[in-house]
Amino acid sequence: MPFDAAPISDGQVGANGRVRLAVAMLSQAWDDATTPLNDMRDRYDCKRVQIIEARQFCTDRSGPWAKKREEWCLIADIEPDTFRQQALAAIARADSERRKIKVTHR
Questions:
Q1: Helix intervals (H) in the chain
Q2: Whole-number Å distance between alpha carbons of 16 and 75
Q3: Mean predicted confidence (pLDDT) in 35-39
Q4: Within a 10 A sphere around the Cβ of 66, how many other Cβ atoms?
Q5: Cα distance between residue 43 and residue 93, in whole Å
Q6: Using an 8 Å Cβ cutoff, are 29 and 47 in contact?
């Protein structure tokens, strides 16, 4: 999910600023969620926790993560269910690609 807007300036907090902030936040969550977990050995590694939480945010059907995703998607004018479905597919691809790379290098 590329974020291609100019940086938010100090006095620019109106609707346009909120949309850009929402898109940037969703982009970061997407990037974190699509990071493969295969290499993460330590269950308490901070990056691992960040990836797991991003995956929950992007894919949970209900609960606080799903509610927040819906709020941010609506601000960014993105359909929340479409975002969720595409995130599920992207996460599966990322983990699958990582497994293929690992098998190739044996």
A1: 15-33, 46-59, 64-75, 80-104
A2: 10
A3: 75
A4: 17
A5: 22
A6: no
75 phi, psi to nearest 5 deg? -60, -40
Residue 105 CB partners (closer than 8 Å, separation 6+) = none
Q: What tens digit of pLDDT does each residue of 47-86 get? A: 888 999 999 999 999 999 999 999 999 999 999 999 999 9
Residue type, 21: L
Cα angle 79, 1, 58 (rounded to 5 degrees) comes to 55
As a dihedral over the C-alpha atoms of residue 41, residue 45, residue 68, residue 32, rounded to 10 degrees, the angle is -60
Sign of the dihedral through C-alpha 11, 27, 31, 81 = positive
**Tokens encoding 41:** 């050995």
Q: Which residues, in sequence order, are CB contacts of 36 under 8 Å at separation 6+? A: 94, 95, 97, 98
Q: Which two tokens stand for residue 95?
A: 């983990």
> How does residue 39 score in pLDDT terms, banded at 50, 70 and 90?
low
Domain ranges of the chain: 15-104
